[in-house]
Amino acid sequence: MKNIIALLLFSFPALASFAQKEKLAKVVAGFPVNYEEDSVGTYVLPDPLTLNNGQRVTNAKTWMEKRRPEIVKLFEEEQFGKAPQRPSDMHFDVFDKGTETFNGKAIRKQVRVYFTKDTTHKMDLLIYLPKQTKPSPLLLIINFSANNSVVDDASVRQGFIWTKEGKKIPAPKTSFGKINVDTFVTQGIGVATVYYGDIEPDFKEGFKYGIRGAYLKPAQSYPADDEWGAISAWSWGLSRAMDYFETDKDIDAKRIALHGVSRLGKTVLWTGAKDPRFKLVIASCSGEGGAALSRRNYGESINHMTDTSRYFYQFAPNRHNYASDPNKSPVDAHMLVALMAPRPLLLQTGDTDYWSDPKGEFLAAVAAEPVYNLFGKKGPGTTVMPQPGDQSLLNTLGYYMHAGGHGTVPSDWAVYMTFLKKYL
């Protein structure tokens, strides 16, 4: 496993730099970081099963019709920001309608999704489906790399990526995060990918080039305090991908799963919470702002995330209101996790990813389990943290922790496939 981690850090220079600079830093962006369990502090989590009027939720119907909408609204206003509905002038260009590839095992499709009539804002979907006559379930991966970089397929359209300096350049032919298409199609599952930068670039001024800029009102220079941050924008783009899947007769749109890592783990969590059309979510190391409890003072905090020198642009501006005291927030990660109920959700973490607080993610799953129980579904079923590599908690609300650090490691994919085949 040490060799795998070393290989990943060599192949993922951004993760290597991250691990070296922040994994065990005592101060980040001027704010202290705690890695000691006896210093996490005391906290009381908001009860996901108590309505705003104080009444108790005791059945699935009340959860779906009353409490769930209340919590979604809170996350929209106080954490991720409100996003617009599907644009009326959105349209699709299926420029690769189905080409046999990978030695006849797969059918490749490529789709350009135009968000606006003037074609300025768009994203490319790359899709591989099993060669079969019935509609296929599918895993959609939101990726840090352009489509042509993450598969060994020379026929994929050349993509473009954004640099940290705000320049758009051709994507290289090779990159980290390679997708093994054969693994999926031989199991009867399709796989698709989209580059998150197609939706919006991942830097402070990215909104000027991304989809959020297209929705600014004439008097606005930045989205309002309760309007969408970049995570909500990326999530919005994933829902537009689902809009396409619903039109494709070769795809079973009732069985679409999502996968994302780190900030994209936060993205798929919010997407699954907001858009119930997605059947299943696998969130990898989503950490603070994702599945890790913010009230637990461990690793990254709201202060670190919303500092203007760091990732404030990923959230609604209102999120910063809780930086100095997360206990004042009306929401926490367990409520975000609970919004997936009763659909399958796998939280995947790493035992040495201290910055993302793997225990905080586990405790969020434990606290969300009562909501799953309303539907007769199981969560962790224990308050005892599992050991690395333990696959015994792959329940509808599942938790799995590999031995290692931040992100998805090669051995995780076999666990993902087990989860997909069990529930998808």
What would you note in describing this structure?
Keywords: Hydrolase, Serine esterase, Signal. This is Acetylxylan esterase. With about 425 residues, this protein is of the alpha/beta class. It has a domain at about 70-80 and about 205-424: Rossmann fold. It has twelve helices and 13 strands. It has helices spanning about 1-10, 15-20, 60-80, 180-185, 195-200, 210-215, 230-245, 265-275, 300-305, 335-340, 360-375, 410-424; strands at about 25-30, 30, 90-100, 105-115, 120-130, 135-145, 160, 170, 190-195, 250-260, 280-285, 345-350, 395-400. The strands form three sheets. It has a nine-stranded mixed beta sheet, with helices on both faces. Strands 1-2 form a two-stranded antiparallel sheet. A two-stranded antiparallel sheet has the order 7-8. The protein is globular and about 55 Å long. The chain starts with a helix and ends with a helix. The model is unreliable at about 1-20 (pLDDT under 50).
Runs in which pLDDT lies below 50 for 5 or more consecutive residues are 1-21
Distance between the termini: 29 Å
| E-strand count | 13
Give the helix proportion (percent range): 25-40%
CATH architecture of the domain at 69-81 and 205-423: 3-Layer(aba) Sandwich
Question: What's the Cα radius of gyration?
Answer: 20 Å
Briefly note the CATH topology name of the domain at 69-81 and 205-423. Answer: Rossmann fold
Average pLDDT taken over every residue: 93
Largest sheet: 9 strands, mixed
Number of helices: 12
Output the helix-strand order.
HHEEHEEEEEEHEHHHEHEHHEHEH
> Approximately what portion of the residues adopt beta-strand conformation?
15-25%
Shape label: globular
Class per helix and strand makeup: alpha/beta
CATH superfamily name of the domain at 69-81 and 205-423?
Alpha/Beta hydrolase fold, catalytic domain
Supply the CATH class of the domain at 69-81 and 205-423.
Answer: Alpha Beta
| Strand order, largest beta sheet | 3-4-5-9-6-10-11-12-13
